[in-house]
């Protein structure tokens, strides 16, 4: 046991010495460049690798600080930098030759009114608040962007994306990671191959898609289209239409001016304060739908294939025609006068409300169906 302990201690000392030797021989160089510019200019960074950080300041200047670190001289010299200014556009290019490992960090200051176009082969990207457009792309790393008075277009092959308040168009895409957008401008388009999506209030349309994760959307002034291969969906409001689809998870939709379409392969669906047509389908779960008074289209189609129930709330003065059906052993309850009968192993509820009108079709394989008057 003493021999083994001594050998272990010797090995640890050797490893520590090796690490110390590497740190001693590591080399760091800082390159700084400064360019005089006007408001409304452009910064372009095109690098084969490295993290990029951009902040604004009050000066009419672009200040670039590049930090290079490598373990030896050959590796250090393998990364080349070039700087250029054409009019009001400042360009930085970084290129690595060979397989030597070099650590590169870009720290850049630009005027508050400036657009940026950032591209790195690998590394995180961070952009502070600015007035202008932001275009950012990394082959691997997270992207974080502040409040932007302009358009935002972000893409990463792997990493989370976080965005503040945007006044223009917002387009974000990640091959794996969560997406968070505090507030959208004219339109929001968010896509991730795996991760949750959260989008704040938006002044236009919203489209969000994830291969695995939940989706939450605050009130949008346009249409909302959301799709997840596995996860819950919540839409807190829309002045347009809502189309929500999940392969597994519950759906909640509230306060929609247009029509609503909701579909899940497994989970309950709840739709409240809808002003337009409602279509909802679940393979296994309960469905609750509420149609408020000031609507133009009262057609409803709700279907659950499992043992879930259906509850629909209708305005007292609605004009509609009802066709409801459930399986043997289930019951249909209605606050409105309907004809309810048992036939061929199923229970049916039919009738016209206030003279009839748009069709309300309700289908439950085994669960009860409740048709209730909406309380004011």
How does this structure look, described?
By secondary structure, the chain is mostly beta strands. It has a domain at 24-123. It has 2 helices and 37 strands. The strands form 3 sheets. It has an 18-stranded mixed beta sheet. It has a 17-stranded mixed beta sheet. The N and C termini lie far apart (82 Å).
Largest sheet features: 18 strands, mixed
Query: Which structural class should the secondary elements be placed in?
Result: mainly beta
Total strand count, please?
37
Tally of helical segments: 2
Gap between N and C termini: 82 Å
- Which range does the strand content fall in? over 45%
Give me the secondary-structure topology:
Blueprint (H helix, E strand, L loop, with lengths): L1 H24 L1 E10 L4 E7 L3 E7 L3 E10 L2 H5 L1 E8 L2 E8 L5 E10 L2 E7 L4 E3 L2 E2 L2 E5 L4 E3 L2 E2 L2 E5 L4 E5 L3 E6 L4 E5 L3 E6 L4 E3 L5 E6 L4 E3 L6 E5 L4 E3 L6 E5 L4 E6 L3 E5 L4 E6 L3 E5 L4 E5 L8 E5 L5 E5 L5 E8 L4 E3 L4 E5 L2 E8 L4 E7 L4 E5 L3
Parallel strand pairs: 2-6, 2-8, 3-7, 3-9, 8-11, 9-12, 10-13, 11-14, 12-15, 14-16, 15-17, 16-18, 17-19, 18-20, 19-21, 20-22, 21-23, 22-24, 23-25, 24-26, 25-27, 26-28, 27-29, 28-30, 29-31, 30-36, 31-37, 32-36, 33-37
Antiparallel strand pairs: 1-4, 4-7, 5-6, 32-35, 34-35
């Amino acid at each position: 046991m003493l021999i083994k302990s001594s050998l272990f201690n010797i090995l640890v000392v050797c490893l520590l010495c090796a690490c110390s030797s590497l740190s001693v021989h590591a080399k760091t160089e800082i390159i700084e460049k400064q360019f005089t510019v006007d408001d409304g200019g452009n910064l372009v960074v095109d690098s084969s690798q490295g993290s990029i950080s951009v902040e604004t300041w009050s000066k009419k200047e672009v200040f670039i600080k590049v930090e290079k670190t490598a373990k030896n001289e050959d590796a250090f010299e393998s990364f080349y930098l070039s700087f250029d200014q054409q009019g009001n556009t400042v360009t930085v290019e970084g290129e690595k030759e060979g397989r030597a490992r070099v650590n590169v960090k870009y720290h850049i200051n630009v005027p508050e009114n400036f657009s940026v176009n950032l591209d790195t082969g690998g590394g995180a990207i961070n952009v502070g608040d600015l007035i202008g457009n932001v275009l950012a792309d990394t082959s691997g790393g997270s992207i974080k962007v502040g409040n932007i008075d302009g358009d935002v277009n972000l893409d990463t092959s792997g990493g989370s994306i976080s965005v503040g308040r945007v006044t223009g168009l917002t387009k974000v895409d990640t091959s794996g990671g969560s997406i968070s957008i505090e507030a959208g401008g004219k339109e929001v388009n968010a896509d991730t191959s795996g991760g949750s999506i959260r989008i704040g209030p938006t002044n236009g349309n919203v489209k969000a898609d994830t291969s695995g994760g939940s989706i939450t959307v605050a009130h949008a002034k346009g249409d909302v289209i959301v799709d997840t291969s596995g996860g819950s969906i919540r839409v807190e409001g829309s002045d347009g239409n809502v189309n929500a689809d999940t392969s597994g998870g519950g759906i909640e939709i509230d306060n929609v001016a247009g029509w609503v379409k909701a579909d899940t392969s497994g989970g309950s669906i709840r739709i409240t304060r809808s002003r337009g047509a409602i279509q909802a389908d679940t393979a296994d779960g309960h469905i609750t739908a509420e149609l408020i008074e000031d609507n133009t289209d009262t057609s409803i189609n709700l279907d659950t294939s499992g043992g879930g129930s259906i509850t629909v709330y209708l305005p007292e003065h609605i004009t509609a025609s009802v066709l409801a059906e459930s399986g043997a052993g289930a019951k249909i309850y209605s606050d409105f006068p309907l004809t309810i009968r048992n036939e061929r192993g199923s229970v049916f509820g039919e009738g016209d409300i206030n003279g009839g009108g748009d069709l309300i079709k309700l289908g439950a394989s085994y669960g009860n169906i409740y048709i209730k008057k909406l309380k004011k």
